[in-house]
From TrEMBL:
Name the UniProt record assigns to this protein: NAD/FAD-dependent oxidoreductase
PANTHER family, sorted: APOPTOSIS-INDUCING FACTOR 1, RIESKE DOMAIN-CONTAINING PROTEIN-RELATED
Ranges for domain Reductase C-terminal: 322-398
Annotated Pfam families: Pyr_redox_2, Reductase_C
């Protein structure tokens, strides 16, 4: 029996991979939420619009779990692991035995003491309930109401794009020097900042909030530059923390905030594995241990660890990728977008271009803006760590994959 704790994309992908690779035993998939497992990327985009039904966000329909004989248990939170006796204790006191345990517990939002989770008109965005509550508050406010977003990462920028199109006056407060400090290149950050500015978003970098006062109509924020800022609605998006506590309580080794696993997802305790965002894992492409926080990693690593559980391991060598949709722009990033230099292919003013990210002469990552078809062809350059001269990369008449 395989018990999977966590029904996000890593857990669902692992369950599917177990069946597709011939596992005939019982699979139990535990979800602490009472909703069918759903996709998280839409929560900061489509889920904030009333026209999109929540059923479109499901990872799989009910028939998938029945057809594959996956015992999906909703509202079942694991609270303890007895590794010696091989069972998991659930919040209702049930002791669930396992032969193999897979932890795909994911992450939770980082919080700020100034902005308590659940306070009126203060929001963090991680679950479907979070998105529903934010959408309800957005609908309750008049057009032209003020929204302050703390953090200019992907979540913050996506929420800003959605809110602006719904008539909010949006200000983003970012402590770093620029937007997308951890997840995007300087050129992409500048491009998106300019687009947000065109849509009326006020992005204030190298700034933080030092005090918050509640008023009858909303909040008054005091900033590090001593200025004040009114806010009818506040959204905090400053990153996530891995949900490793369940494993740590059982004595499983952790590092860099995540559960330490080997190249096949094994933890320090026999018959217990971890996959997805919670796992501090080995990636052959980068030749190092790392923790990734993207949808694609969670899906790929869940499948990878499922195969390892069945004794058919492969090398996990994904360079990583993510995407974001903001206004009319679809942005896809493959590999490491924080190289030592950048080469642009195409014209950013046209809204269709590619950025090659280099470390020395080696292509470590690619960002494609409204250029999905070209990225399909170019992504092999990242996987192969190719070295192509900059003048070839920027010349749209030359195919750099044939260089």
């Amino acid at each position: 029996m395989v018990v999977i704790v966590g029904a996000g994309i890593a857990g669902v992908s692992a369950a599917q991979a177990l069946r597709e690779n011939g596992f005939k035993g019982q699979i139990i998939l535990l979800s602490r939420e009472n909703r069918m497992p759903y996709d998280r990327p839409p929560l900061s985009k489509d889920a904030l619009h009333t026209s999109t039904p929540p059923t479109t966000f499901l990872l799989r329909d009910e028939a998938f779990y029945k057809t594959n004989q996956i015992d999906l248990r909703l509202g079942a939170e694991a609270t303890a692991i007895d590794a010696a006796a091989h069972f998991v204790t659930l919040s209702d006191g049930t002791e669930l035995p396992y032969s193999t345990l897979l932890l795909t517990t994911g992450s939770r939002p980082r919080t700020l003491p100034l902005f308590p989770y659940g306070a009126p008109f203060i929001h963090y965005l991680r679950t479907s309930s979070d998105a529903q509550r934010l959408r309800q508050d957005m609908q309750s406010l008049p057009k032209g109401a003020s929204m302050v977003i703390v953090g200019a990462g992907i979540i913050g920028l996506e929420v800003a794009a959605s809110a602006t199109t719904q008539g909010f006056h949006v200000t983003i407060i970012e402590a770093g020097e620029r937007p997308l400090g951890r997840s995007g290149s300087p050129l992409l950050a500048n491009f998106l900042a300019a687009e947000h500015t065109k849509h009326g978003v006020d992005i204030r970098c190298k700034t933080h909030i030092i005090d918050v006062e509640k008023s009858e109509s909303g909040y008054s924020l005091t900033l590090s530059d001593k200025s004040t800022l009114p806010a009818d609605l506040i959204v905090v998006g400053i990153g996530v923390c891995p949900e490793h506590e369940l494993g740590s309580l059982a004595g499983i080794e952790a590092a860099a905030g995540g559960i330490s696993v080997d190249a096949q997802g094994k933890t320090s305790i026999k018959d217990i594995y971890a996959a997805g965002e919670v796992a501090f894992h080995h990636n052959v492409h980068y030749g190092t241990q790392r923790r990734d926080e993207t949808w694609q990693h969670a899906a790929s690593h869940g499948e990878h660890v499922a195969k390892a559980i069945l004794g058919v391991p492969d090398d996990y060598s994904s360079p990583g990728s993510y995407w974001t949709d903001q206004y009319t722009f679809n942005i896809q990033v493959v590999g490491n977008p924080l190289g030592t230099s950048e080469v642009v292919r195409g014209n950013p003013s046209d809204g269709v271009f590619v950025i090659f990210h280099l470390i020395g002469s080696v292509i470590c990552g690619i960002t494609a803006v409204n250029a999905t078809r070209e990225l399909r062809k170019l992504r092999r350059l990242v996987r192969n760590s190719s070295a192509v001269p900059p003048h070839i990369l920027e010349d749209t008449t030359i195919d750099p994959t044939h260089y």
